[in-house]
Amino acid sequence: MDQLSAISVELAELDGQISDIFRALSNGFQKLEKVKDSSRQSRQLEELTGKMRECKRLIKEFDREVKEQESRNTADTNKMLNEKKQSLIKELNSYVALKKQYASNLDIKRVDLFDGPGGEGYAEDNGLVASSMTNQQMMDTGNNMMDETDQVIERSKKVVEDTVNVGADTAAALKAQTDQMSRIVNELDSIHFSIKKASQLVKDIGRQVATDRCIMALLFIIVLGVIAVIIVKLVNPNNKDIRDIPGLGPPAARRLLWDPK
To answer: Which ranges carry the T-SNARE coiled-coil homology domain (predicted)?
Structure first.
């Protein structure tokens, strides 16, 4: 920092602020290891992410200041400043990697600072990071980003395919339930018709039984009347009020064929 003070007060101040944030990040991650509650870990990790975001902004200001002073400094000074910048970037990236590890353990599924394509980390730091990378490193980084993008697309395809399959299964299940309900309704109609027909048949049988009982009762009364007449005729055969019943009356006087009269 003394060398930076001799070159530029602005660079020295930026370096001091960045160093303070690095110390805060180091202490924060050490405390994070002792926290067991996942929600509390998540909150502390968000605070550390905010500090890394601020550190990234300061490093970008440091890079702009170095470029502005590049024409006024010697080659050795510019080399020292670039090495200092790369050292700051490397240290920040180490905390980024540590943050990703904790985020993965907490199963945090969001695109955040330094989280790759579409995020506000490396995508915003192209000028800063690219200035400290070789062509091969830039190509490797680009390939890695493309691979990550392909993986995201494949996962999205898998989600869409699973959603379509679930929709097809749901439609098939609904159709099967609809068919089953139709069969149940038809069976209920058949049962209702059978019950109605059976009720009518029971009524017809009841009327027929009532008619048969009346006939039986009438025949019974007639039989009782005949038996009563027979009994009276047997008891009092000379009763003139009771007409003769064939076969039961007293024998009439018959004239013998051989009667001399």
So the answer is: 143-205
Phi first, then psi: give them for residue 235, nearest 5 degrees. -75, -40
- For residue 52, the tally of other CB atoms under 10 A from its CB is 24
The per-residue pLDDT for range 157-189, each reduced to its tens digit, is: 778 888 888 888 888 888 888 888 888 888 888
With 0.70 as the threshold, say if the pTM is over it. no
- Residue 171, Cα to own-chain centre: how many angstroms? 15
Neighbours of 77 (CB within 10 A): 16
Per the CB < 8 A criterion, the answer to whether 27 and 4 are in contact is no
Residue 148 DSSP SS3: helix
In angstroms, the CA 233 to CA 104 distance is: 122
In whole angstroms, give the CA distance from residue 204 to residue 61: 105
Q: The tokens of 192 are what?
A: 């209702």
Q: Please, which contacts does 180-187 make with residues 24 or more away whose CB atoms are closer than 8 Å?
A: none
Report how far residue 109's alpha carbon sits from residue 126's, in angstroms, rounded to the nearest whole number: 24
- H and E: helices and strands count for the chain: 6, 0
Whether the Cβ atoms of residue 97 and residue 120 lie closer than 8 Å to each other:
no
